[in-house]
């Protein structure tokens, strides 16, 4: 079984990669990173390589030109990446059963109580039963040979504390991930707000004590 993480270099996917490596062994994990013409490509690529080098995970960089005329995410971007990754997996690992992972569909209700920033733009998974649609796409196209998982669906960032402890994802790991949309650590964008929340609340053992660190 090959476990394939769509890796962006940010906190979400790097935590997911860490989980997959600790549970399945680096030899059974593969990372895919997309060049979609993002202005942060070099910094994102550097972060991605830091994590894949750290764990000895094989990395594939795929090109996927998309419309970047708006700063907001295009509704079809993530499904396009999933479809391209699916086609790549089928050709690269045709004899292996695989599972494709994305870290989408968080539920931030609990996080908002502790200052998590509200985003003012839509993302690809803001469409009904996104996981159901993507599962149908992935598993239907491969007759069930490739599976699709979203490990954080319905979870808050605070509920990830047991993962941070269990898989030893540290503040140093967070610092090596990338977040800023402007690529400059602007401190103003949604992604910078999320990083500040992670540092000040999620990784802070004195904050939100009702959210424990043990499973």
Largest sheet: 5 strands, parallel
Shape: globular
Give the helices and strands as they follow along the chain.
EHEHEHEHHEHHH
Count of DSSP strands? 5
The Cα radius of gyration reads 17 Å
CATH class: Alpha Beta
> What is the mean pLDDT?
89
Percent helix, as a range, is: 40-55%
Brief synopsis:
The chain contains eight helices and five strands, in the order E-H-E-H-E-H-E-H-H-E-H-H-H. With 215 residues, the chain is an alpha/beta fold.
Key words describing this protein structure:
8 helices; alpha/beta; single chain; 215 residues; Rossmann fold
SSE map:
Layout: E1 2-6, H1 11-24, E2 29-35, H2 41-55, E3 58-63, H3 77-92, E4 98-101, H4 109-112, H5 130-141, E5 146-149, H6 161-166, H7 171-176, H8 190-202
Parallel strand pairs: 1-2, 1-4, 2-3, 4-5
Helix pairs in contact: 1-2
Fold and architecture overview:
By secondary structure, the chain is an alpha/beta fold. It has one domain: Rossmann fold (3-Layer(aba) Sandwich), CATH 3.40.50.620. 40% of the residues lie in helices and 12% in strands. Strands 3-2-1-4-5 form a five-stranded parallel sheet, with helices on both faces. The longest helix has 16 residues. The model has no long low-confidence stretch (mean pLDDT 89).
